[in-house]
Amino acid sequence: MQAYPLSEPISISQPQVLQNQVVVFSKNYLPLARINIKRAIALLVTGQAETLEFSSTRQWEVRSPSIVLLIPEHIRLVGGNPERHWKVPPVNRREIFRRDNHACQYCGSSKRLTLDHVIPRSKGGTHTWDNVVTACEKCNSSKSDSLLHEIGMVLRTKPKAPIHPAIAFAEQFWKEHQPLE
Asked: Which domains does the chain have, with CATH numbers?
């Protein structure tokens, strides 16, 4: 190996092609995630994934000293089952705040947040994903022990349990790739 004197600083940066993202599908064609192109190359070269070609699939040419690879925009895993068991997280303060984006579900405030039971526990409400929401202290005390229709309050979003991250990604992916009418 020869060493050459550096006359000016060399900036080492990734080639533009390596900054692209590839969508990975499961063996059952469920879109799982976006990964960087380096990870996609590893999966394709080791035989853990195969090329998926849709009508609008782009490909990127990646060169090494010995080979030229065409990396597609979509790949499918051929073995294993990455759709691992996933449990719905427990109903607790941190998870409710995360689901509700740290905002009151009545007024949208992000100050002095508490938890509120939509149907109060004193009236038979349960501590479940579809009955607990984030509320600011002001809205929580205004609502008190009442039902929403009794005092005219309205929820900004309907409370529901979080869904599996792969399912959430799949829903978003297919929404983005709907044909234009």
From this structure: 19-77 (no CATH), 93-151 (1.10.30.50)
